[in-house]
Specification:
Rossmann fold; alpha/beta
Length: 288
Amino acid sequence: MNDQAEALRNLVTIQEKLAAAKQTRIVTVTSGKGGVGKSNFSLNFALALQKRGYSVLLFDADIGMANIDVLLGTPAEFNLFHLLKREKTIWEIIQTGPGGLRFIAGGSGFKDLVRLSEADLDYFAAQIGQLHGHVDFLIFDTGAGLSKETLRFITAAQEAVVITTPEPTSITDAYALIKMVKTMGHDVSFRLVINRVADEREGQQTASNIQQVSKKYLNIELPLLGYVPDDSHMIKAVKRQTALSIAYPDSAANRGIERIAAAYLSEDKAVEAGGARSFLQRIRRLWG
């Protein structure tokens, strides 16, 4: 019995050490303008990562336009508002949607972030910090455009996926977003996803256009993660309030997102030391 108890204690110790060593990778998904399919991409990208065996938490950080719970058809009983009001802990506002995806709904709470006191900000940061080591990926679906709140999340995470479409206005706004972050002096690792492309050629050409401008005027490389075909199944999934990967797993758009997830995971990119903890330090500095 003593040997069994000792073995159990050793097993628990090993598990605790493994959890402590686990890094949580923070990723923001953003766009220069609305209406480019950012939230749908965030949702199905998160599910694609989860499908590959990673633990993922999707955080709806779109101020005023939070809709992940709507896209999932899973009304959220609790959201960020309850956390900021200290009515619930971070663990109590985590919801589970179809496919077992864990998410945090934004609700109306994000509007209060701009008015947080120093004590409230410390509380918010501490609550987010509890997620460190418990998930492999924390994905923030941010608002579109150049709002202060979106920029703060992008620069705090330091790893951002920018969604654009082949439309000239979308490309221009995506470039403007990247330029704004870079001119502010922040070291953010950007990657590009082209959504709603007619074919591979259009995806590659769109990417090439924004890559050339970014290299010439910002002196930065902008790797292309991939492109997502324009697909009527996406609209059908939205109407059904079901994730595309669940409703239409064999659709062209979902296959595109699956390829992007595979490309993202295959990158030889070390997770920044500190993971979520470093994120907390940056967001505290940027929001304080």
